[in-house]
Structures are given as C-alpha cells and as structure tokens.
Amino acid sequence: MTKQDPSEPILLDDLNSRSSLHNSQQSEEDDLEREFQEITVALNEPDGSLSGLTTDEAITKLVDTASEVLNEYNTRTTRTEHFVKYITSFAPLSTIVAALCLLAFYIYGTLKSSPHQFRLIGTIVEVGILVAIFIWNAFIHRRDLKLRGREVRDRVKGVIAELETIRVHPNQELKIPSIPSVSTVRVIRSGIVRTIPSNLIVKGDLIEMVYGDIAPCKVLCMLSRHRIEHPDSPLHSHGSHINVHHLDPRYRDYSSGTSPHVREFFLKRRETFQPSLFGMPPTEGMQRMHTDLQGRYTFEVLETPLERILHVALDPTPRPKSLMKNQLLITNKIIFVKVFLSIAVLAFFINLLRYILKEVVQLKHGSNGVEQLLALPVYAALPLLPLSIPTLLQISKAYTNAVILVLFNTLQISKTEYEDEKDVDEFDVEAPPPTKNVTIESKEVWKRFWRLLTRWGNSGQDFDDGLTRSTNLVESLGGITVICSIDKEGTIATAFPAIEQVLVATEDDDTVVLDVLEDAYLPNGLRFEDKDWENYIQSLKPIGLNQLLNTNCGTLSAPRRKEPHRKCNTLHYNSRTRAAQQTCLCRLGKEIGFTKEALYPFVLQKEIMCFHPYLPMPPMTFGKLVNYEIPTMLSTIYRDQNSEGYMVLTDGHVECVVECCMDYWDGTKLHELDESMLKKISDFYQTAVVNDLQCIAYAYRPISIDTGDNALELDPSTSEFITLPVRILPDADEKPGDNVEKSSVQQAEEDKQTEGEEGERSQRLTNTQRIDMRDLPDPINIVIEVEGVSDTDEDDFQHYPSSLDEAGASASKGESGPLQRWRKLREMDMEMPYDDEEDIEPPAAVGTKEFYEEAVQGQIFLGMTTLAHQPKTNVCDFIEDLGLAGIRFVYFSPASERESKAFADRLGLETDWNSCILLSSASDPYGASSGYLESYDIKAQLPRGIENIRPHLESVDDIPLHVSLFAECGAEAATEMIKIFQDYGEVVCCIGSSLNINNIAAFARADISIGMEPIRMGSGPESKSAFSLGAKINSLPCGLTMHSETSLYALTQVVREARRLLNSQRQGIVFMIASFMSISLLLLVSYCFLTPPAMTGYQILWLMWIIVPLLILSFFFSPHEPDTMTMMPSKNISPLRDLPRFIFYFLARFTLPVGMCVFVFLYCLQVYDGAEGYHFLFNSFGNGTPWLEWTDSEQWALLYAQNLTMVIWVWYMVCLSSTFMSRTLSMIKFMPWKNRVWIGASVGSLVLQFVFCVVSLYRGPHRIDAISWWVFLLAFVWPVVFLPAQEVVKARDLKECVRAQKLAKLEFNTKLGMHSPL
C-alpha cells in the first residue's frame, strides 16, 4: 500500500520530553501550510501498479482537456450574428438615414445655392461625423460582444498557463480540514500521496478514498489492486446490493487476466463511499482487507472533473440582464424609438406646413423644400439618437468597475476596523452598516480604468479585474436583492467549530452541562459561563488533560491562539471525520488550569486509531442523516514518568467511545455505566445533533504491566490501526437469551450460575488485559492551577467489575438511537458463556494488535463536549444590516430542518412559522409523501421539493420568495432555486466556497457570484500552489473572490459604493436624455416660429459628445447620500414605471430654460438681421429670401444667434445638473458644490463652450455687444427663476419615493401566506 506524504499531519507529540517542549517553535502558519517534500514510497505491488501518473502526465492531461473544451466554445459565429442584428437595429439604421438625408441636402444645396452657402460646409462635416459615429458604435458593440464572450475563456487560458507553471512549483498547502466546503482528494502521483483539490485530478489518476469520502467524479475500485478475489470476496454475503452482478452497472466481471473472478465497483459523482458498496454485513475477508489497507482504498479515476467544470463555466447561456440594462432597453424603445419618430414626424409636418403655406403659396418659390423637409426634421430628431450613449456607457462602466475593484482589494488588504459613521448612533436599529475608513489610491483607480477601457485581448490579470462585463459587476452589486449562501464552513461560519458545552457526571448519578463562551478578550479566547464551574473541577481535569495531550498544535510553546484551530493526527488520514474531531481544544484545557509543568511527566508511547465502519447507523427520529460518518476514536497510551504507570486517553465519536466503556467517572469515584447514565448520554447526544452540534466523547483507562524483563516497549513514531469487530444485534422483539419460558426454579439456578460466570469473566478480563488497578496512580492527581491556586486532590481509585446488572438492561419497545444499541450490546456481553477456565485466552503480548484491541476496551467514560460552527465575526450583524438595506439573506442548507434551523438561529434568521422550506424531493424516503409539508412546528402550508416551488408560486402564494432558509438542499436544487428567484425579478448574489467543486453551477447561474476562501491557504494573489489554482478553477464564473479573513462587511461597503455609482449613473442618464430632449424641444419651438433651426447638426453633436458627457461623468464623484443603505432596491421585473409622471417632470423642469433659450435666439436673430419689430417672426428670416440664396451677412447672423443660444443653453444645463446629482434631496441637504469634480466640469464646460463660440465667430462681421446688456443679465440670472421649480418637482418625487419605499418594505417584511397565522 502507498505510504502517505510525510507532510501529512502525524501525531509526533511535542510533549515526549521537557527538552522537546522548550525546543518546539511551531508557528500558526505551519498549522495551515507546509512545503511539499519529495520522498520515496514503497509500493505493495511488485510491478509498481499503484504508482499512478506522474505530475507531468497529469498536468499534460489537464492542459489537453482544458484546451479541447476551450476550442468547443468558439463563439465567433454567435458574435457575428449579434453584430449583424445590431447594425440592422433601429438606431444604426436611423443614423445612416440621417446621414443620407443631410448628404442629399448638401448635394442639392451645392448645386442650387447662389451665392455660395458656407454653412453647407457644416452639413458635409455632419455627414462625416455621423458616418464615423456609426462605424465607431459598431466597433464598440463588436468589441463589447467579443470581450463579454471571452472573459471566462481568458480566465481559462490563464488557468492553462498557470498549470504549466505549477510543474516548477510543487508547493501545496496541507493540513486542510475535511469539511464539506473544501473538496480535496488524496491522489497518488509517482507513488507519492498528495492532497490536492478535487478539480485537479484527471482520468487515469489513482486516488485514495476512505469510508465517508464523496466521489469527486466517476471512480472505479479494482479489488485486484488489493488482492481480494472472488472466493474470499464479500460478494457472497447475504444482503449485499450487488449480489446479482450482471444486473448492477456499478461493477463488472473480468474473465481474462491473472484474476478472472475479480470484480470492480463503481462510485458515481457525489456518491458517498460506504462499506455497503462491498456488501453488508461484511465477511471476514472484507474485514481483513479493511484492516490491512488501514481503511485507505485505491480508486481509479474514470473521468476528468475539469471537463465538466469548464463546460458549466463556459456555458454561453447569458446571465439575466441587469436592471440598468433593462431600463436602457425600455428607454431605447420609448425615447430613442417612439419619441424619436414622434419628434421626426412632428418636425416634418411642421416644416411641411410651413413649406406649403409660406414657401409655395406666399413666397412662390420651393427651393427651401429639401432643407426644410429633410435637414430640419433630422436636426430636431438627431438629439434623440443614442449616438454618444455607447461610448459613455463604456467609459462609465470602466470607471465604476475600476472603483469597485480597487475598493474591494483595498478593503481586503486594510487592517483597520469597521466602524459606524460619526453622526450615526450604533444602537439605532435603522443605522446603516459600518464601513472601513480606507483611502482609495486614485492612481490605481485610473490605472485600472485605463486597462479596462482599452483592453482588447487577454490582459493577463483576468481574476484581478473580475468579470466586469458578463456579470455586469456594478449593476449587479448595486441592484442586489437576494444574497444566497450555499456553504457554511469557512464562508459564513468558522471552518473549525468552537466548543459550546461540556457534559460531566456528578456525584448524585446525574450529569451537568457547563456552557462555554468564546471571548476574544480573554487569554485563552473562551470562558465558562457558569460561575460555579470550579465545583466540577475534578470531573473536568481528565478531560482537560486529554485535550492537551492528544494534540500537536504547538500552542504550549508558541504564542497563545485564541481562535479554533486544527488538531493534527493520522486519524483524519485514515477516515473522514467530522470537523469537531479535527478541532484542537487545547484552549479549554488551559482554561481548566493546566500548565506546561503539569504535562512534563507524560510521554507518548503509542497512538491507536480505532474505527467502527460496520456500526449500523439507524436514521434518527429527528430527520435525515445528511453527513455519512464512520464512528472513530483516537486512543493514546501515555507513560507517567513519575509513577511509571501507563494510561489510555481516548476521544472520538460518541457511539464508538461509549461502546468501549464500562464505567464512568463522577469526579470522586467510579460508577457502573448503567442504563440510567446511558440514557442521559444518549439524550444529550441526540439533542445536540438536533441542534446542529457535533459531539466528542472522552474516556480513560489505566493499564499496568510487569516492569521486569518484559517491560513495555512501544514505538511512538508509528500508529496502530484497529477495526472494531462487527456485532450482530438481535431483533428488537427477541431477547438475547433463551426464548423458552422457564420456571422460577430454573431461573434461580441460572441466576446462580450467572453470578459465578460473571466472577470468572471479570477475572478473565483482568488477567487478559494485564491490569493491576491497585498499583495505578490517581488519574486525577495532576498539579493544575485554577486562577492561580494550586491544588492536589488524592482520591481512592476504585475498580468496578466489567459486568453489568442485568436487571436494568431490558430495552423498551419503540426506542431508537444509540441507547437501544448500547443496551443490547451489554445484554449480549452478559449472556456470553464461559464453560471452564480452558476457554480463557492467554494474555496478549505487549505491542501486538491483540494487545491494542484489548487496551481500548473496558474504559472509563469521562464526559462529552459539544462543538458548533459559529458564525464568523460580524456575520450576524451583516445579515441584520442586509435586511435594513432591502437585501434578503438566504441560506441553502444540506442538513435536515431542525439542524438547519438551529444554525439559522445562530445567524439571527427567523426560525418560526414560514421560515424553512425543504427542497429535497417529495419521494425522499425520509420526507413527506406529497408535494406539501405540514411540519410539526409550522402552521403554514409550504411546498416540499424543488419541483413544487414554481407550481406553488403560480397557484398559491409567494412565500418561497420570502423564506430565508431552505433545508435538505443539494447543489442542483440550490441552482434551480436561484433561477426561480431571478425569474421573479430578484437580483441574486451567490457566495460560497471557492474550494467546493459542487458550487460551479450556482456560481454560473447567479447574477453576481463571490468565491470565498474557506480556509487561510497562506498564498498570495500570485501564488502558484495547487489549492490556489483549484480555487481559481472553481471561481471561474465569479465576479469577485474574497479571502478567508475578509469580513462580510466588505461586501456591504462594496454594495454601498456600487449603489452610489449606480444612482449617479442613472441620474446622469436621466439628465442626458432630458437635456437632449430639451434640444429637440428648442428646435421644434423655433420651427413653430418659422425661423431657421436654433442649432445646426454639428453644434448638436458638439453638445452631445463633449458638453453633456463632461457634466454627467462628474456625477460619479458625488458624495454618498445618507440613506444609500436603507433604501429598498428595485426588482428586475418593472424596469420603467410611471412614464407619464416623468414626462410631466421633464416639462416642469425644462420648459422655463427652453423658453428663455428660444427668446435669446429670436432676439439675436432680430438684432443681427437688422429687422425692426417682431413681424419677421412669422414671416421669413432674410426678408423672404430663399435660404440657399442668403448673403454672408444673413448666414453670419444665424450663426451668431445659434452660438449665443448654445452658450445660454450650456449655462442652464450646468445649473440644472446641480439638481440632478440627487434624485430627491434638495440642494440644501445634498450640496452639489461638495463635488469638486463637478465644479471643475462645470467650469470646463463653460470654458469649452466659450472657446467653441469664439472659434465659430472668429471671422464674423458682427459684435457681441450688439446685444443689449439686459438680455445677457436676464438670461444669466434666469436660473434663479427655474431652480425653485426643480426643488418643487423633487419634493413631489420624494413623496412618491417615500410611498414606494414603504410599500416595498411592507412587502419585504411580509411573509403571510396560505394557512399562516394572523
């Protein structure tokens, strides 16, 4: 059999001697990361068949697989289809039509004008600009499609490149805990066992699996590798589910080769490796094989998990469109299509009417028809074409994404604490979540902005830049309505559970439960909540001694560790254990009062790993057994150098430990482990499991041997593997003894005979185990310090017989759980016959397997501890603050309902009625038989099973959308539930472990996903380690990745910033559309006054591409609004509502500015044309001269009027922009001048417009001072008139928003449904 990598955790106790304690310098980092060391491994196969693939072979297969999958997703055809669809859409076609109309006017004007009209130069420039804009927008769209389609592909290319580099970097993190959120596998590469992420194995790899492991993909166990063949195979066992091999697809027969009768067994992906794979109950051959292999079976990998992962990550099915995207689509459909056509048609008919009535009927010439019927409608509708929007969106997205990415990275690096703002009361229930006061480097933001803006191909930093396009990073973060957690350990809860309770026996044959609380401010990081805990110090001492001796965390010599950490021993390498057995509880031992000096005399002699793989695990009465677990325990033999005595310290699974105990310790003496105490232990155990707690039981046993020539010689450098025997229990209705009814005389004789047999049996056990209780030291006689006081208590050690009183051993019908099994086992022990002394086996030789098997029996039960995965720091407050922000936190739990509710209660989630839905199928053997679940503690009628969620939503109520807890939920059910959320308008953020191979589908489905490191891997962002690479592979669809130490408050702060940026972007778009519509309105009004256009085409394009974008981009630098994180986000179902109300707002806010612009234009036309009075307004500019026959003076007069009108319009837009930075807050509460960038943009816009005006009028014949001063004064102070109107409109909008927010909060907090209590 292959040996394990020596870097795997082995219990080489650092307490072997005082010198080893003083010399040990183990650090915290060493507990989570050790560098890989090459060793030579001896193979048990002479031909080296278990050497597996080499590292180069495996990496080559991974690279080839990734490259093949990548080539399948060449989306060029799809991109071409999208591109053709875009250029044939309304906006590009309208741009071409507008250019053609202007080109026709230019050609006609060039041919018909007399004298030459220099203003036609502007027309041909406009044509060229429109053509350039069409090409530019097409290029931007094609580029965006390409980058959006290749974001994940570029990440895959980065993974392939990193796979190549990992050949030279064989480092790997070890001591990874066996928790559901971390998918690891022990693979044999070049004969060396390495622990790597499950997604890095390939077809043809050999992996080691132990009972309880979950298959990462389809695997094959070939028993020929272990020399187990048909004649001695467990396949002949009755009850095996694979007796008829030709009907079972999970194995196959081979009729050729050296072993024609060898059979092979398959495990499907996500199938748990259990002893039942080989048939139950096991045969002797199967048990021998398990012991010889030490529980480690070799499987051949039949498929490459990376292939499936890449297919899911590269799935071309797009995520749902963001709310902003849908709003833009609706805006494009309404504003840029319907309103555009309306304006164009209206302008055409106005000019058609003018052309017929004035030009044809009154003036008797029709040369103005081409300009009035083609050019003027184009000018009026031109502002409503989305010409600059694609570019502005690219710029705004690049900047906002850069801000979010830099902020997120800064929050993860910064060591400052999250604090409430100065003006916020931390006890206010409506207070926003705390933030971390960090400074974002503007240089880094602009650097990231430029990289995102100009990126074309693979930048080489894809994970660092996030999936900004395919996930719509800022839009998704700012619009989150649901945050789903699909993992517990290491993400929202600690990777290692913390101790909660300690159960010990008391002197009155009862038990007491002592509560333990985590307290980071104390030296040991925890404390006993009960003030009288010292009264039970004698019961706590042996447990504390066990916890300090049976660990190798190094905390006795290294600085104190206040957080839960891993307990290192080889037990976890030979069996999959729960996180509680992997957690070091040295902190509790120190809190009890142990010091280093108290541990010096104890020297490790042997480590015994005990496994009980064939222990029947009946389904508990409280629900479904989700996590399959093989009961295990670790027993260590220590020698006390002071007394030269030996003792066994044991901790492990409750069922395993209790089965090996015959007595219990109450702090003063030993008692028989009778039925009463067994019932208390069983009740406590089952109650703990129901409440999502994990239990560890502790036991002790003194052993004594002769110290003569045959002194105990044990090798502490190796561990002993023991498989506890299979014990078949009698049926519940059958008593272990004789079924024939006996007379009272016969019963009395048997009782008398039994007493004699019990004495012989007790003597036999004592002789066999070679124990002399009288020579043993007091197991509790250990110098400890409790609050500085040293005490030494000496108690008489009593030994009780190994037999139990048969009177209390009868099992009651209807009982379930471990109690019934323990009672039956004791009944079987009492019924064990002993005919004569010849049957008594001689004592086992020291150091033999029989010696160790006997050493772990007949132990003394000391007590139990319960551990639970506690929510990470700030997680509960984080969830509470999410509710205030209108974001629902949803936890998908794989556990049963009660266990899930127990953990949800720790999180602060609601656990009463309407609070939990089971997503397991209704056909589940442990579940209900119908589609609805009438739960014992829920009065509402809730759907059962993921397949019944949609029918319930369609025909009953929407309760499933308001529930925060889903139990018995698998990976597929979680993914489908996320899709249901999205179909009903929720914007879903999925957070989960980046090392969980089952999370890839949920990550790819959610609007935005965040991959969290469940453990501290000790690797930086440029690490080339296997676990860093495995995390990247699982996080391919994730927009962001989070370190294990990062607080979830980083997410709320990023959401807060995203909301600010999103609100700024939304307000900028609204202002841009309104300003463009004001240009169209201005032109339409000028047409109604029968004048030439107030602005020509190139002037409109100047405003659309330079002035307005400069103002709206400054919105991104606005400060936070105080209610940013207390507003309810909009759902992604009604992108644009109350359109008439917003049209009214537009008219109310822009009528006065547009009216003054029209007045200035008309006045300037009058002044520069030299006309007197106002009769010309409804006559003809230029005394009725055809427009193509204007003189230079008349053309300059129009140009002067247009430029001065532009200056006034820009001034008004600057003033109006100050009111658009906040949708509802007045300028008094939200002061725009706090935005210094906006001040600079405003000044810059005015300066640029003045420069534009000067350049346009540089050679003009007129003077600006020809316009009366009062016109300029009136125009420039006009904002004093229309700014109050802005405040009035915003106040009314505020009332509507407050009303909508109240309704949204009422809906968010309402869970009333069918049959719900009122």
Question: What does this protein structure show overall?
Answer:
- The protein has 1318 residues and is α+β, with helices and mostly antiparallel strands.
- Helix content is 42%, strand content 12%.
- It is built from 35 helices and 33 strands.
- Strands 11, 12, 13, 16, 17, 18, 19, 20, 21, 22 and 25 form an eleven-stranded mixed sheet that branches. It has a seven-stranded antiparallel sheet with strand order 2-1-3-7-4-6-5. A seven-stranded parallel sheet has the order 27-30-26-10-31-32-33, with helices on both faces.
- Strand 17 and strand 18 form a beta hairpin.
- Helix 4 (90-112) runs antiparallel to helix 9 (369-381).
- The radius of gyration is 40 Å and the shape is elongated.
- Residues 730-741, 749-763 have a biased composition (Basic and acidic residues).
- Residues 1-30, 728-772, 789-818 are annotated as: Disordered.
- The chain crosses the membrane at residues 86-108, 120-140, 334-353, 1069-1090, 1102-1121, 1142-1168, 1196-1216, 1237-1260, 1266-1285.
Short characterization:
This protein is of the alpha+beta class. Helices cover 42% and strands 12% of the residues. The strands form 7 sheets. Strands 11, 12, 13, 16, 17, 18, 19, 20, 21, 22 and 25 form an 11-stranded mixed sheet that branches.
